[in-house]
Amino acid sequence: MDLNTARHVLRLDPLAPLTAEAVETAYAREAWARHPSRYPDAAGFEAATVWAGTLAQAREVLLQSAPPTDATSWAPPAISAAPPQAMQWATPAASAVPTPIPSEAVGLDVPPVAATESTVASMGSASTGRRDRRRVGLVVGIVAASAGVIALIGGAAFGATRLAEQLVDDASALAEEPWVTGETVR
Hints:
Layout: H1 3-9, H2 20-33, H3 42-65, H4 85-88, H5 92-95, H6 103-106, H7 117-123, H8 126-176
Helix pairs in contact: 1-3, 2-3
């Protein structure tokens, strides 16, 4: 596996500096998001197990290419059954329900994320509140734009009606006037 694919699998920014801590944090986040125990069906469990192997391979490739660090000052974080609270809410992407990596982008079989009621409930209402506010704003914008279009169409129809009435009045006024035959009036 090359470095770019490994960064993509662990969702690391391709331009960010590669550190062992960043690799371990990304690995813990992705391992928890697609842990085999989160898939109740056998096919999902098997696919998640294969994906866990791919994550481990990407982690190894990135750790080998990361610059060496002082072993006494840093130790890899332990992977527990549940992610730490700080990791769960650290980034906007981590606060939402995880989305799968496009498998065609890396050429790998990616298992879908199992969003159960407990995982959605564990995310809390903070992530849904922001989405709800955006949806309300979107609805208000659509309603305002629709009202503007209706007003524009109504104004154009009113203007066309007034113009037609003006033309009819002018034409009837011309038809009623006596025409001068060419003789001059003295």
